[in-house]
């Protein structure tokens, strides 16, 4: 496809889908979005780590060919819009992409570009693994007990963008409609938001989690919901997830209520969301995969990441049936922009997830090993250094050089 501002590299090949399988050439062209705020600092450092890991793992036989695509401030400068159509089209054409964080204005302005990308590309599963890396300073006593993977439904819930400001015609009409149908009064000076949750959306995130759990020999899936209060959205989510598990994976699962002893089946349980937050802190080793809705998953992923060292170490991937966009859990951390200061660990680990998605396991392992060894040696960025007496605080770029030096390829 011819693009207006995207330079398509002359070398490299496209990832394709054939017979329902992702086919990855040895020189895949991978679109990246640098991101706003600290995005450029982090991206520069992470790209260096990815290239070095691939070079060391495959000695020239494989190479990622990067292709910059634009969103956020940089896109606005180039195109006069924050999310150009050709950015979405390029990700569709090349299938797998990685991005830095993008700014979203609060209380006004355009809809989140991050959420928009997930919705237009139908990246319905936001997968955020949270595990402890030896030596990382943590606020809890036994961080090694944390090994959870959050599967967050990524397209529905209050993120659907159905929201109207106080005093708009839409808000007034909805208030009037609700009063006429239910007799319940909503204060006229209210903003109104809608929370749709479908059976389709609930089933496909649960299916994705179950497929992952089976392929990766995980122990349990906990459905996290606030179904006692939001019965027909969050409560229905819980019911639909259980139904799907029984219907499609009946011989692979067992319900927590049916357990009588040890099992090699995947245990399916559920927890009400507020309880889940305290359980994650106090009894993390009882939880493995968490499946939940968009907003719960957003809150949970930052909170659980804090237990193993904070947002600087929290990776993620937004994955649909084939399209995938990998990105950190954290945002643009704007106060640190341009300082070469923040922890690139989350984007680096998101890249590790991307390499696993491509099937490039050896390069992914080198990244994990280099990062782990660097932290264990006490060479860390500011966020870890401030909790780690005796450590040596280094800049983003120095941290990544140390990671590469610690790769044993
Ligand atoms: N997917 C995305 O692109 C996301 C975008 N955003 C957007 O980012 C903007 C800022 O959001 P905000 O709520 O401040 O959240 P951020 O995640 O950007 O930052 C919150 C705090 O987390 C810590 N932190 C974040 N990233 C890092 C890192 N790489 N290394 C070390 N510490 C880090 C910092 O803590 P400390 O101050 O303690 O040093 C920082 O002040 C908003 O516009 C928001 O909408 C938010 C989340 C995801
Ligand atoms: O889109 C945003 O600005 C915030 C997104 C977010 O918090 C997340 O993906 O976890
Ligand atoms: Mg978030």
From TrEMBL:
Keywords: Glyoxylate bypass, Magnesium, Manganese, Metal-binding, NADP, Oxidoreductase, Tricarboxylic acid cycle. Binds 1 Mg(2+) or Mn(2+) ion per subunit. Its EC number is 1.1.1.42. The record marks 159, 226 as: Critical for catalysis. GO terms for biological process: glyoxylate cycle; tricarboxylic acid cycle. Pfam families: Iso_dh (PF00180). This is Isocitrate dehydrogenase [NADP].
